[in-house]
């Protein structure tokens, strides 16, 4: 999603939310003043204008959220703006005629004005939603195939990975592939020294304690009498004993203080 | 008896447990030199007990002696492996590797003897495929009667050097052909990859920048180089330092990138460095400086010298073979414990 579309989406959400709040405020106000045919005109005008503006804003918000930049996006935007202007003009016209001219044909003009605005907004939102539903599968197909561009190197690495896994003894899906080695038919003749002498070797003092540690690390198991385990147990035991001694000492001190206080 | 084998671009090293509390290493240079055959030359080589093979009218001198002869005759050395794997450019690479492996490893004392071999992980900066190399080396060892397992070179460093940290940390092997890196948590690899650059890359770059022969650059790098703050303008040492620094930065950059793709646990990760190309004096200090500057997504507690390097006389090049040996011994112990448990269960059932 481009930045422009993201902004449009967030703006639409905000407009939709504010429209909803204004509509609820209008309905709330109507309930609060107990709106009836005989109510004060100001109360009627406030309630209906709030509901009218709120409804228009809600539809405008939906339009902003749902519409995309398409070849026909300009017409969609014109329809959206026209619809919103007509519906708001309807509300303003209602405020102008309600008190003095709330009769035929002014009321009919008002209905036509507001209804056409709302129709444009809702029709535009519906059309955009339908186009989006129709367009999505083909669009997904095209983007998924175009976004993943594998280079030759990626493909080779993937093949190598798959082959390595298939040859690995740990892989249970394939049996291990072993290269067989036939007896040499090369014309190499090793010299006498190969047979008469041994390879020179150096011996280094080394306890190779890592072998045992590696087994412990890999399996998580320790043998009975393990040096590390014994050492840790001893340290834990010492710590516990020390803590016990400290506690005993503090209890004894408390008793001593209490006893001294009583004596005093 | 369990064994560990490091098949490197420069050295093939076998490690096995000694009679007392010790490890026995057998090392052979993974290189050969082609020479013209002749009775005199063959007699001289036989008398000096030098390893060679005879083929029609040519002689291939193997191992360390090949380097000595290369210097004497001013001939280029041939390498059966390039960039960490069997060289596709060298026709005789597999027979040569086979001979060297047979020489250092020997036949298994009993069939099914456990062996762990280190192999490079898939490189992140090259299309090199390590599968053929791994399977060939495995096949050669199986031919000698071993039950073989392959592990990543970086993981072998973790097994060898990070036992005190519960096998948690970063194992780096800076070899001649490749640099292997494994980030492990409790002996389990989180990230494992290789970089198709190592000591050979430094030699090539320095040789091409300064116009000095590669063999001479290698010799200076191995015997007469220390990381200093100042070098003479145009000196080979200066160029070596520059490319060493470039390699270290390159390794750390890739490590940073790979760690960002993974989700490492919140723990302290010490770094252990091994491999022949990490032998240069001041390398670890330089690495520590660069890794501190990198601001990695894991908490690096320290950069650790391999225990063989810290003892002075010994070599960090043995750490990988040692890690493989540790893996083999662990497997051997586990198999022993398992069979004992099976026997115990059978005995109880019989009772």
UniProtKB/TrEMBL annotation, chain B:
Gene3D superfamilies reported in the protein's UniProt record: 3.30.420.40
Record-given protein name: Cell division protein FtsA
Domain of life of the source: Archaea
Pfam families: Volactin
InterPro entries: ATPase_NBD, Volactin
Native organism: Methanosalsum natronophilum
């Amino acid at each position: 999603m481009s930045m422009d579309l993201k902004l449009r989406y967030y703006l639409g959400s905000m407009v939709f939310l504010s429209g909803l709040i204004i509509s609820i405020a209008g309905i709330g106000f109507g309930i609060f003043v107990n709106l009836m045919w005989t109510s004060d005109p100001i109360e009627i005008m406030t309630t209906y204008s709030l509901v009218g503006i709120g409804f228009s804003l809600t539809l405008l918000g939906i339009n902003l959220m749902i519409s995309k930049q398409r070849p026909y996006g300009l017409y969609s935007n014109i329809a959206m703006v026209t619809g919103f202007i007509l519906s708001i003009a309807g509300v303003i016209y209602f405020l102008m005629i309600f008190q003095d001219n709330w009769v035929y044909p002014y009321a009919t003009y008002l209905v036509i004005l507001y209804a056409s605005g709302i129709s444009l907004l809702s029709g535009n939102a519906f059309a955009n939603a339908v186009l989006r539903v129709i367009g999505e599968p083909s669009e997904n197909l095209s983007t998924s195939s175009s976004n993943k561009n594998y280079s030759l190197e990626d493909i080779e690495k993937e093949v190598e990975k798959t082959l390595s896994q298939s040859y690995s003894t740990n892989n249970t899906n394939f049996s291990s592939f072993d290269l067989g080695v036939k007896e040499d038919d090369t014309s190499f003749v090793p010299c006498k020294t190969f047979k008469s002498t041994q390879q020179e070797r150096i011996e280094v003092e080394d306890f190779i304690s890592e072998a045992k540690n590696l087994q412990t690390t890999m399996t998580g198991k320790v043998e009975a009498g393990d040096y590390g385990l014994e050492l840790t147990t001893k340290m834990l035991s010492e710590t516990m004993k020390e803590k016990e001694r400290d506690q005993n000492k503090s209890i004894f001190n408390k008793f001593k203080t209490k006893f001294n206080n009583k004596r005093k | 008896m369990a064994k560990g084998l490091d098949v490197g671009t420069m050295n093939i090293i076998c490690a096995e447990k000694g009679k007392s509390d010790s490890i026995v290493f057998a090392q052979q240079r993974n290189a050969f030199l082609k020479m013209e055959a002749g009775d005199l030359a063959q007699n001289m080589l036989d008398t000096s007990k030098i390893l060679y093979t005879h083929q029609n009218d040519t002689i291939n001198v193997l191992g360390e002696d090949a380097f000595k002869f290369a210097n004497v005759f001013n001939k280029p050395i041939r390498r059966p492996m390039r960039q960490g794997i069997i060289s596709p450019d060298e026709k005789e690479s597999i027979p040569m590797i086979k001979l060297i492996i047979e020489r250092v490893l020997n036949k298994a004392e009993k069939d099914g003897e456990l062996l762990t071999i280190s192999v490079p992980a898939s490189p992140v900066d090259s299309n090199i495929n390590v599968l053929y190399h791994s399977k060939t080396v495995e096949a050669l060892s199986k031919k000698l009667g071993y039950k073989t397992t392959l592990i990543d070179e970086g993981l072998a460093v973790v097994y060898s050097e990070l036992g005190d940290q519960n096998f948690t940390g970063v194992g780096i092997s800076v070899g001649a052909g490749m640099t292997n890196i494994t980030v492990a948590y409790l002996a389990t690899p989180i990230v494992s990859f290789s970089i198709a650059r190592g000591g050979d890359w430094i030699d090539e770059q320095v040789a091409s920048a300064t116009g000095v022969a590669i063999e001479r650059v290698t010799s200076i790098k191995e015997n007469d180089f220390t990381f200093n703050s100042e070098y003479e303008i145009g000196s080979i040492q200066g160029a070596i330092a520059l490319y060493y620094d470039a390699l270290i930065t390159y390794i750390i950059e890739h490590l940073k990138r790979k760690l960002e793709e993974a989700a490492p646990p919140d723990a302290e990760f010490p770094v252990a460095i091994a491999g022949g190309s990490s032998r240069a004096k001041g390398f670890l200090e330089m690495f520590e400086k660069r890794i501190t500057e990198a601001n990695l997504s894991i908490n690096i507690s320290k950069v650790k010298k391999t225990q063989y390097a810290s003892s002075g006389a010994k070599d960090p090049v043995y750490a990988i073979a040692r890690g493989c040996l540790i893996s083999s011994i662990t497997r051997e112990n586990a198999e022993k414990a398992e069979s004992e448990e099976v026997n115990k269960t059978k005995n109880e059932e019989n009772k």
